[in-house]
Every structure is written in C-alpha cells, then in structure tokens.
Specification:
Layout: E1 3-4, H1 15-26, H2 37-56, E2 64-67, H3 70-85, E3 91-95, H4 100-111, E4 115-119, H5 129-135, E5 140-146, H6 158-168, E6 173-177, H7 189-192, E7 196-200, E8 211-215, H8 241-255, H9 258-276, E9 282-284, E10 294-299, H10 304-313, E11 316-317, H11 332-335, H12 340-344, E12 346-350, H13 357-376
Parallel strand pairs: 1-11, 3-4, 3-5, 5-6, 6-7
Antiparallel strand pairs: 2-8, 7-8, 9-10, 10-12
Helix pairs in contact: 1-8, 2-8, 3-4, 5-6, 9-13
C-alpha cells in the first residue's frame, strides 16, 4: 500500500468534492451564462459554492471571483493591481521566499521598469515586520506576501505587517497568497487586513484547475483575461461548474474542524520529528513553530532526487521542494539560512489529517534504510 506524503503539492479529492463534481458534470451541465432554466440551475449552484467559500474567509460572496487556480489568482492580483495603480505608484514590496507564480510575475514587472523591494528573513530565519514598514513609501502600490511557505511551512507575519501598513499607508494594496494556509489556519480577511487573497481547491481536497481571488470591495483590479464578462468582468471565460461545486464541497468538508485538525497535525509532526531525530545525519529545515502540515529535512550526503526515487520504489511519495519548480532548486531554503549543500539534499514531507503514525514509522524506517544503503554504495 502506498504512502502519500506530498499533500503540499496536491491532495486527494474528498468524496464530497467528487460527488459534487459528478453532479456538475451530469446534472448541472448548463452554461451559467445561458438564460434558460438549465443555465439558471448551474448559476445558482455556482452562487451557493461561492457563498460557502466566501464565508470560510469572512468575506461577502460578491467579493470572491473564481479562477483556474492559484497561479492565475496570483497573476491577477499582481498584474491587475499594477495596471490599476502602478502608473503613479511604481513600487512593489514582496519577499524573497514567494511562490514562483508571484516571484516570476514580479520579476517580469521589474524588467518593465517597476521598482521592487524584496524583504528577506533575518539571519535567524525570521521575518521582522519593521523591515516591511521601512521599505514602503508613498510610491508603493502593492505589497504581496504569502501566509505559509510552501517549502518549509514557515508562517509569515502577514497580519502584523498588513495591519501596520494599513495604519501608515492605507492606500497600499495588500495581497496574500493563502494557498498553503487555507483550511489549515483560521483565515479572516478583515483580521488579516488583506485587500486581495489567493486560494486554490486542489490543496484542500478539491480538484485541480479551480481557484479563487478575494477582492475587497472598492479595490481596483484590472482584468488580465477579457472576453464575455463572466465573474462581473473580472475574469472572463465560462465558469467550470463541476470544479467550482467540488471546491465548495471541499471547503464545507474542511471547515468544521480546522483547529482540531491543526492540533492533530502538530501531534503527527512531533511524532515524526521524534523518530527522525533517532537517525544520525539529518538536519531539520522547518522551524518548530512552522505549519505542522509541512516538514522539510536534509539527509546529509544524499541528493534529493536520489532519495526521492529510492522512496518512490517503496511506494512512498514525498517531494524535493515545490512541485511547481519541477525539481529545480528555487533558492527559498537558502533564504532561510539553509546551506546550499543541505538544500541540495532537502526533501519535503507534507501531511494531512488522514496521515497515520504507522505510515510515518514506515517512512522513517525507509529513510534510515536509504541512508545506510546509498551512503555505503
């Protein structure tokens, strides 16, 4: 039986999401933009899913727009904000540890002449809110920072940074990539002081291919996909009714016990680390107070790719970092003070509520076996 420990890359869709996807495919197959009853039925189902997802982050359903996923949501947030405000305020603040969909988008804007300030963690691997505040001025249009790092689970001080920014520079647009924190931490748009929030379905037991962007009422975002004026003109293109229904079902399934599940994962993380520490030559790249859903380690002397395939042969599935990097080093771990050697040996173990201690014991046993066999080869 396989052991899946790559949930930060994608999760297995839950039964409720699959049922709703099937309903969208077989019963609610009308186009939501059509004026006949089949179209109305599809539109009402989409509206209900929108209400569920909006409610989970404390926003009005009219502030939530569906996209094809977090990459599009992140692009829409950054490009749309810059198009709206960047002409007179050509400065962007971000971090050095963002997901590629933010990092590459902002890199492109920088090449087009925008000023970009990238805040890095201090030498102790921690972000300090004051560093962000000092970087912002009257020329800043946007600050974009993730809530939970996708490679090591570090929880960024978004609430502290955004609230301080809004006190000093209320016109600066605040965007948070909440993909790895959504349904794992309790997220409220008002408490976070966020104008824009990116979400994804397939990280929370929904399907791939659908996400959402929260846009606070009154915030201008210029559309990057134009056409038939769906999603109130913010994101044109026929809505994927089945995937949206699955997204809503996954949120409903996950919403009931976020705090309890977090405690369960903390216990699993503690159990995992307690057993990993019994093996010599393994360094921990995730902080103790990081998200318990993600644990990053380095097995000294063994390259990530070699270890990955050793485990895969035993039907144990982990990753060597962000799945979006296709195995290439992103440099994020080094920003947190991990040496290049350890970064080359890093693997990410990402769990969910169905992960068992027996699975983790099997993983640790295989890890010890890999270290002995590969190092002695």
């Amino acid at each position: 039986m396989s052991i899946y420990l790559d949930n930060a890359a994608t999760t297995k869709p839950c039964a409720a999401a699959i049922d709703e996807i099937n309903r969208g495919l077989t019963e609610l197959y009308g186009n939501p933009s059509s004026l006949h009853s089949k179209g109305l039925q599809a539109q009402l189902a989409v509206d209900e899913a929108r209400k569920i997802i909006a409610g989970s982050i404390g926003c009005d359903s009219r502030e939530l727009y569906f996209t094809s996923g977090a990459t599009e949501s992140n692009n829409m947030a950054v490009r749309g904000t810059v198009a709206a405000y960047g002409k007179r305020k050509p400065k962007i603040i971000t971090t050095t540890v963002e997901h590629a969909s933010i990092r590459e988008t902002i890199n492109e804007l920088e090449m087009k002449g925008f000023e970009v300030i990238r805040i890095a963690p201090r030498k102790n691997g921690e972000f300090v809110p004051q560093d962000f505040i000092e970087a912002i001025d009257e020329k800043t249009c946007l600050i974009s920072m993730m809530l939970v790092n996708n490679e090591n689970g570090y929880i960024l001080p978004v609430k502290e940074v955004f609230s301080a920014v809004k006190r000093k520079f209320p016109d600066v647009i605040t965007h948070c990539d909440c993909v790895q924190g959504f349904m794992k931490l309790n997220i409220n748009v008002k408490e976070l002081s966020a104008d824009l929030i990116s979400l994804s379905a397939h990280k929370i037991h929904g399907a791939k291919g659908v996400g959402a962007l929260y846009i606070k009422k009154g915030t201008r975002v210029v559309p990057i996909i134009t056409g038939g004026k769906q999603e109130k003109g913010i994101r044109s293109g026929t809505e994927s009714v089945p995937l949206i229904l699955g997204f809503g079902a996954a949120v409903k399934y996950m919403s009931s016990d976020i705090t309890q599940r977090f405690g369960q994962l903390k216990e699993l993380k503690s159990f995992l680390l307690g057993n990993i520490k019994k093996i010599d030559g393994i360094n921990l790249n995730s902080a103790e107070n990081a998200s318990p859903y993600i644990v990053n380690i380095s097995v000294c002397g063994i390259r990530s790719e070699i270890l990955l395939h050793f485990l895969e042969e035993r039907e144990i599935y982990v990753s060597s970092g962000s799945a979006c990097s296709k195995g290439a080093q992103s440099g994020v771990l080094e920003q947190f003070g991990v040496s290049r050697t350890d970064a080359d040996s890093a693997i990410r173990i990402s769990m969910n509520a169905s992960t068992t201690k027996d699975e983790l014991l099997t993983f640790v046993s295989s890890l010890a076996d890999a270290k002995q066999r590969i190092m002695s080869a």
